[in-house]
Amino acid sequence: MLPRDLDDEDNYGRQHIRTLLNMVAHTHGYGKFVDLVRPFLLVIAHPALLDCLSVDTFVGGLYNFISGSNGSRAVPFFQRLSTNLLKQHLDSITHTQTKKLETTLIAMSTALRELLRREQRAIFHEDLPALVNSMENVVEATGIDSLSLAFQIVRNSIGELRGMIVRSQGLLQYEEEPQVGGVSAPVVTSTYPRDLILPRDRHDNDKMDITKIKVLPTEDEIRSDHVEFLPSTDRDQPHFLTDSAERHLDTHFRLLRHDIFGELSEALSGGLIALDNDPAVVEDPKFSLGNIRAYPHPKAHIRYVSFDQRRGLEAQVSFLQPFPLRKKSPPERRKWWEESKRLEEGILLCLLFVEDTKSSLLFFTVSEKCTDTRKEYGLSYDKHQATIKAKLATRSQNDFEAMTRLSCQKTHGLLVEFPGVLLATFVPILENIQKMQRLSRLPFRQWILPDRVSSHGAMSKAVDISPPLYARGPGFAFSLNPILKDPRGDMSLATTVPADSSYATEELEARTQLDRGQCQALIAALTREFAFIQGPPGTGKSYLGVQLMRVLLACKTKANLGPIVVVCYTNHALDQFLEHLIEVGIEKVIRMGSQSQSSLLEGKNLRVISKGESKTKSERYHLAMTYKALEAQEKTIRKLLGRLHGSQKRKDWASVENHILHKHPRIHSQFHRVDEDGFTTVGKEPFDIWAGDKLPAWSEQSEKAHLPLESIEHLLAQATQNVHRIALPNRHRLVDFWTEQMRNETTDELFEMVKHADNLHQQLTNVHDDVDRRVLQTADVIGVTTTGLARRIATLQHVRCKVVICEEAGEVMEPHMISALLPSVEHFIQIGDHQQLRPQVNNFQLSLESQRGTLYQLDRSQFERLSVGERGRPAFPVAQLSVQRRMRPDISKLIRETIYPRLLDHDVTRHLPDVVGMRKNVFWLDHDSVEESTQADKHQKSHSNLWEVNMTHALVRHIVRQGIYSSTDIAVLTPYTGQLQKLRAMMRNDFEVVLSERDQETLTRGGFNVEGASSESNETSGQVDPGFKPFQKKNMTELLRVATVDNFQGEEAKVVIVSLVRSNKEKKVGFLRTTNRINVLLSRAQHGLYLIGNTDTYLNQTMWASVHGMLQATDSVGKALGLCCPRHTDTEIQVSQPDDFARLSPEVARPLVERFYLADTHVQGLVANVIRRTRKTNPLSLTLYARNPAVDGLELATTTVRDVVTTAKIAALVYRPARFAVRTLDVRCDVMKHVHRVWRTVLGPANTGENVACRAPHHVVASHAISAAAESYPADISARDSVAKRARSTSAKHVQSIKKLESIFSK
């Protein structure tokens, strides 16, 4: 292993490096100097060395040695190298020498940047600015081509180095500011509208430099009464940092940290005050920290501190079981803990306790949730006490000492659980921003932070974005062949083509399946290194992303792109996008994260793939040595822990002898059993007799040895002379002093040992992460969510990838977007829509929706900020998609007239079917039933409207009973979690209700029990849910999606029903006052959209008033909803109350008996429907033939399917003739076999769709016989008067019937 050998004294690696670094060129020896140094630089700057996590420790040691003290060895060496490089080039200018110069400069700048990253003190070397100037002079004097890749790389590196130097000079300036009375002199400049205040010394974590701020709040910070320093995102407001990139990173670090910890710190501050006033609150199970989601666990104490070589140091924290669980059996307790969301791994805990009459706190994270009833130290074993394993959340020695001290004392406290705070999801983001600040690194800073322009003309001038760095070489062009209609065609796109080129757009539109807007967006994305694509609802953002990916992968090898990283905000969107890639033949896809719901991606998960990756010999050796070292550490640490716990339990001669022997040998000699006269003391040890028979145990109440130093010294001096002359009280003081000394020394030694063990664990993690890195490096596409990116940022930063595509960019907070700028990125593409949902923040005061939040705007994405533009700065160019294929024109009009004036409807939207059973496809049902008061129930934390719940439920049942739409085609949306909970409870009587993971989390955050009907707050008050009931079969046996608006972006449904909820005299609209939410709410439906809400409440909002006006113009607003019988279209049916559906719904009404269809099969009276497919070009018609005996003819129904299919037929067999509702059969054209058979059966009641509902189960078999097609496409076949229900496909009778039918079909 090269880094280890170079860093090894035994191999003389350091000696050789020292010789090389101290080398000096004489006379004409500069060429020899460069030739000797160049291979060394190429090695230490090689990507294989810098990216390999398993050798990172050795690489760090290597750079530490190269640097010398504060850069004293490295800076002079690089200075001599710059001088000799210039001399060599001027002496012999050849093409070969120029290439060597370029590679040497790249390696030099890379090595210097890496050195400053690892050895931060080297940045303060006084000759470093001169060195960077010298490197820049070499670049200019040698005349390297400014268009070359080498020039761009070296220039960027020099820019980063200069930024680091400027930042270091600023830090020195801050450190040299005068101090007055121990406090920094006030530096406040009066400006308008805000004062410039320096964040410094108001508490121990109030730092000007964010790299020195501890991520978790400190106790001093929590207790501080000073207002936290929160800089504004408005760049025209004053800030103490003048560099725009540094200010940007500083601002977003502080705002994101406050968003996570601001309210938590405020709540804990109140908790500490309450604990100071009344220490008994640690036993109060109803203790509240205010309006923050937190669960208190009373009478908590650290039971034991343990160490395991694999798990590290852990504390076993015990607390009282929730009261109702104490009456339950261990299996019942286990069930409750397993099904609850409480104390999940990674959740933040805070232990509040009182020590020496002063309250304090410690932060932990849950490391293991054990519910095994056989494990004594778990949550289910004991009926009175529950125990959880946790790790300290900080690496502070003070916190470590406090934890061990509390463990010895068994001090009781209050354990507070913060279920919404998972450190692993945001701490890496904050630490990465700190790292970027330390290195002064912000890629694409010229586009992310555009300069102010002085004139209006400059404002209107389009920003010219450079092509990606990898595409700037002469003659480079993107091949567009993968997306052409004609696979034999040839087309390319040069990066010199303007993004708005009409010629290129027209040619691309003619030769591909893309529409004009998609063509313009594709060109912009390929020719701009920092590109934005706005996709209004239904315009095919994902489809464009897939085509873009195909083009980029076509040049992957030529441009050495490495894997392309795809980042999405939600797991659902990421799964969908990766599935689309696989469907078009992109197989080398790796999905990171464990939250995927796609069966297609199971074998593509990084965890699965890495299991098959072998480790190298050096890695296996390194692992073996590290485990061996950890095993030795484990023995030592356990011994120290035993000594620590034992010293507090007993204070006899056995526990203190060694300490007194080493510290006070003359005192030790006085406790020998054999005295100076030769007499031997028998029985007890002389020390135990001297100290007294009943030595008091050390506890909170015992008198500790906090005596003045002189008193202890006096007692020790006296004891050295004659220990037996000391009075008994002072003897106790001495014993306590010695015990305290022992504990402190043991704790110090233990802390160092644990710290070393943590470093060993990090080395193990690096080896395993490096295996992941090697796997990721081989991929074509890496898919990850923003949360997953945060968790694995350390690994991804070592993957050489030049292209990052961010989907749903409008929903991503800017700090997360900044973290997605991986070190090697050269091409960054954001696809999103800032007119839809904004990023979600925890603290409302940082949001644009609050008056105070306009200063901070943390919920404004980078996509929105740059697309809209900032005051005095040019707006960023955005390519907008313009053709929507989702909504019928009646629906798309609502957002076209209010938000997207350029939005066009594709022709397919004009032929979408009407909603069967409804008079109107779009309607706003007006009512005046007031919402429920939030004060009516102390546990209710959100708005709801019971009348709308009942009306929505009745409407869903009506639409489903018409037989065209199953409940899976319907989505019920609402803005409030309170209404979501009530809708879910109501719908579960008839449907299998589906909630997304994000909605489940939203319900939990709102205090609602996700699995039960009661709120989780009941549990803390003693009303613990006995268990969460699983879903059961309901009457309609269908899945129904119920969701909040905020968690339904990016999804769609054929029919959408919206419960608006708010209905009040004050006309408060609440969440739906923002156009972003209204836009999402109105744009999810394909066929039908139904709003249920009080129009009078919503008309005060501008966009709602416009929507109301458009609907009113088409008579689509009213107090009654028009229903329609599909067989009697002239019959008027109006419903205005939920109960009206039971009386008037066409499904249960008694109209005239209609004709029905029976296929003449003569097979045991079976009903059969036949679908034939003939070979045609796109579009392909499917024809349904159904014999109607009443009219002696065939009734036909057709539908359209994409692409070419040879033949297909579907037989639906129904026992007992009956009249059936219209069903939808999903047919998939399979390309794997010539003929693919699918048997699908479903059990349930079949409705006649006539005068009565037939509840008897009718057994059915659906047989799909499908031949090969050019490609594999899903085809939805709406077959009138056919049904697919359950049957036993193995029945001989069914097989015989099918054979007879096939014989008939073949004729």
Task: Give the uncertain stretches in residue-range form.
Answer: 174-192, 694-709, 936-940, 1011-1037, 1148-1302
End-to-end separation in angstroms reads: 74 Å
Strand content: 15-25%
Number of helices: 42
Rounded mean pLDDT is 78
**Any idea what the radius of gyration is?**
37 Å
Overall description:
Helices cover 39% and strands 16% of the residues. With 1307 residues, it is an alpha/beta fold. α8 packs antiparallel against α9 (149-175), α11 crosses α14 (423-438) and α23 (617-649) packs antiparallel against α28 (728-777). Residues 174-192, 694-709, 936-940, 1011-1037 and 1148-1302 have low confidence and may be disordered. Keywords: ATP-binding, Helicase, Hydrolase, Nucleotide-binding.
List the helices and strands and how they pair.
Layout: H1 2-6, H2 13-21, H3 30-44, H4 47-51, H5 56-67, H6 74-91, H7 95-118, H8 128-142, H9 149-175, E1 179-180, E2 183-184, H10 219-223, H11 244-277, E3 295-308, E4 312-320, H12 330-339, E5 347-355, E6 358-368, E7 385-392, H13 397-409, E8 413-422, H14 423-438, H15 445-448, H16 456-460, E9 477-479, E10 492-494, H17 502-511, H18 516-527, E11 530-534, H19 541-554, H20 556-559, E12 564-568, H21 571-583, E13 589-591, H22 606-611, H23 617-649, H24 653-663, H25 665-669, H26 686-691, H27 709-722, H28 728-777, E14 781-785, H29 786-791, H30 793-796, E15 803-806, H31 814-819, E16 827-832, H32 862-868, E17 879-880, E18 883-884, H33 889-896, E19 904-905, E20 922-925, H34 946-961, E21 970-974, H35 977-987, E22 992-994, H36 997-1005, H37 1017-1020, E23 1039-1044, E24 1053-1059, H38 1075-1082, E25 1085-1092, H39 1095-1098, H40 1102-1113, E26 1117-1118, E27 1121-1125, E28 1128-1135, H41 1140-1144, E29 1167-1173, E30 1180-1188, E31 1193-1201, E32 1208-1214, E33 1223-1228, E34 1235-1240, E35 1260-1267, E36 1274-1279, H42 1292-1306
Parallel strand pairs: 11-16, 11-17, 12-14, 12-15, 13-14, 15-16, 18-19, 20-25, 20-26, 21-23, 21-24, 22-23, 24-25
Antiparallel strand pairs: 1-2, 3-4, 3-8, 4-7, 5-6, 5-8, 6-7, 9-10, 27-28, 29-30, 29-32, 30-31, 32-35, 33-36, 34-35
Pfam families: AAA_11, AAA_12
Region (Disordered): 1008-1027
GO molecular function, one term: helicase activity
